[in-house]
Structure formats: C-alpha cells, structure tokens
Amino acid sequence: MKVGFAISGYFCYAYRYSLISGLSLSVYAQVGLVLLIALAAKNAILIIEFSQNKLNNDNASIEDAAVQGGSARFRVVNMTSWSFILGILPLVFASGAVGLKTLGVTLLGGLLSVLLIGSFFVPGYFALIHKMKARRSKKNLPNNKLSKNTLRESKCNEISLAEKKQMKSWLKQIAIFGVIFLIMSFAVDTWRTKDIDRQALPELQGLTINNEAIDLKALSFEQPILVYFWGTWCPVCSVVSPSVDTLSQYYPVYSIAMQSGDNETLTTYMATEEYQFKVINDDNNDIARSLGVQVTPLVMVIDQGELVSYTTGYVSLFGLWSRIAWASW
Q1: Which of 29, 94, 200, 249 has the greatest count of CB atoms below 10 A from its CB?
Q2: Rounded to an integer, what distance in angstroms lies between the CA atom of residue 90 and that of residue 87?
Q3: Of the ranges 14-28, 68-82, 118-132, 287-301, which one carries the lowest mean pLDDT score?
Q4: What is the number of alpha carbons within 13 Å of residue 246 lying toward its C-beta?
Q5: Residue 107 has pLDDT above 70, yes or no
Q6: Which residues contact 311 (CB under 8 A, 6 or more apart)?
Q7: How buried is 246 (Cβ within 10 angstroms: 0-12 exposed, 13-18 middle, 19+ buried)?
Q8: Which fold would CATH assign to domain 2-140?
Q9: Nearest partner of 102 among 17, 12, 187, judged by Cα
Q10: Do 205 and 214 contact (CB within 8 A), yes or no?
C-alpha cells in the first residue's frame, strides 16, 4: 500500500511539474520509480516489523502493537526520508542535465507522498489485516472435546488447510501484483503517448533504406499493420527487435529508425543483426515528431487509418502477436 502512495505521489507531482518544465517519463524517471518502490517498502517494513514483534513476543493487543510500531519508528522513518529529500533537492532545482532533474522530481514527489500520507496508513492497515485474520481463526476453532485420534486427524487437516491457505495467499499476492503491474504499464503507456492523436493520424510516408516508397496510412486500409519505432542506439530496442523480426515473417511489419544514421549505416546494421523487417530511415525525427513520439521502443498497430493499439518499452513476442492478432480479428 505504501508503494502505491509513492507511485501515485510521483504521478501527481511529476504531472504538475511537467506542465512547467516539460519533463517526461524518461529512463531516469523509471529508475527513480524503482528506487521509490524500494524506499517505500523499507519504511513500511520498519514499522510492521516492530509491531509484529510486539504482537508476538510482548502479547500486546493488535491496536497497541500498531500504535507502538507507528510511534516507535516514526522518528527513524522521518530522519531517513527527510535527509534523502534534502539530498535530492539540488537535483530538482539545479540547472543542467534534464535527466538528473527528472530523477530528482520523481524521487521528491514519491517520497513526500510516502512521508506525509503513507506513514500514517501503515499502522492502520497492519491492525486491519490482523483483525481480519483473528476473525477467521475464531470461526475455525472446535466447539467440543475430541478424542486423540480425532485431534490427530484434525491437526493434519489443519496443516493441509494451512498449506492451502498459504497457497491461496501466494496466488492472491501474485494476482494483486499482476493487476498493479498492468495498471502501471497502462499509466506509463498513456503518459508516454499523451501527444499522439489516435483518431487523426498524420500522413505517414517515407522511403525505406532500399528506396521503396511506403505510405503506412494507406496500407492500414488493406489490413492492420504494426509500426515499430526504434533506434540502433536504444538498448531496449536490441531486445525487442528480434521479436519484431520474427513477427514480420507472418504479419505486415514496418519499422521507423529514429536518429540512427544514414541508409548505409542502417543497411550495415540490419545485415549484421540479420533482421528482415522493412526500415524507414527517420534520421531527423520528422515522422516521429509529426506523431508526437518521444520514446523508444514504441509499437503501434494501425487499422483503417486509426491507432488501435500501442505500447512503449519492452514487449514480448506474444505481446506483439496478441496486439496485431486482436486488430486482425
């Protein structure tokens, strides 16, 4: 839950800050988000660990354990958080590299949200979860005296039930993290492609590195096409490009190389990597700028002249296939 406060705090603060300075969700911001998750989890663990010890070793009530954990660790959490915030302020207000400024804004927004809001919710959630567990355990208590054999069987059943509950708990946690990951991915994709008009795409025309004239928007009226924005300098693209190349053997795939040199350089690169997909050289970012594309890799599916699907960052072969297959259905 505290991680959720950190991420929501980042998006609120970064969105307000981006309106002023034009910062975007770059690689630096993503590194800051990973760091925020670790810092928020660390602060929550400090509180919960102390409360759990009070509950188990000192036989304190659930409410007392939660209150003591929050009050005992309040100073530690504040000291570490405020010292970290003061340390990153030069990154936020200094002039210079935009990437470092983006990193500072990301950490500042998330840490302020964790410190001012999240710290007060952790003890409450600790008490709430333990009360729910206590109610469940009361319902499972036996109401009559049992024989030794029956008690032994009951104990074995309780162990198997405990294992099943633990398995269900793990599956539930996996499902929750999966949903959170999907929500975060959707939010990141929406943020990164906020400047792209999905209904009114501009004319997408260009020459491939083999001097073949291509009109992507016109081709999309024949069948859905996958357009892949990438660059030879992009490290994530080197992981996504093999999947794009595999997909190009079965579906119409067209790529746009951004700021990757002249046609000869791109031809040499394609031959070295043994890629077969078609490449339009956008060395000056004219096509990317007309669409509002600011990050790579970016994959979009265009059908009937409209953008029907898009994603940024790493995407697997199955993810690529599912997007183009869904548009072709």
Answers
A1: 29
A2: 7
A3: 14-28
A4: 11
A5: yes
A6: 185, 189, 298, 299, 319, 323
A7: middle
A8: Multidrug efflux transporter AcrB transmembrane fold (1.20.1640)
A9: 17
A10: yes
Query: Are the C-beta atoms of residues 328 and 223 closer than 8 Å to each other?
Result: yes
Cβ distance 27 to 98 under 8 Å?
Answer: no
pTM: 0.52
Domain regions of the chain by residue span: 2-140, 158-192, 205-328
The conformation of residue 280, written as its DSSP 8-state character, comes to E
* CA count, 13 A, side-chain hemisphere, 3: 14
- Using one digit for the tens of pLDDT, what is the confidence trace for 165-215? 667 776 777 777 677 766 766 666 666 556 666 666 777 888 999 989 999
Residue 296 DSSP label: S
Q: Specify the long-range contacts of residues 198-207, CB closer than 8 Å, at least 24 apart.
A: 198/306, 198/307, 199/306, 199/307, 201/291, 201/302, 201/305, 201/306, 201/307, 202/290, 202/291, 204/287, 204/290, 204/291, 204/302, 206/256, 206/280, 206/281, 206/282, 206/287, 207/280, 207/281
The span from the CA of 19 to the CA of 282, in Å, is: 28
CATH code of domain 205-328: 3.40.30.10
Give the pairing of strands 205-207 and 213-215.
Answer: antiparallel
- Average pLDDT estimate for 111-126: 77
End-to-end, the C-alpha distance of the chain in Å comes to: 38
Least confident of 33-37, 158-162, 211-215, 236-240: 158-162
CA angle 151, 155, 159 (to 5 degrees): 170
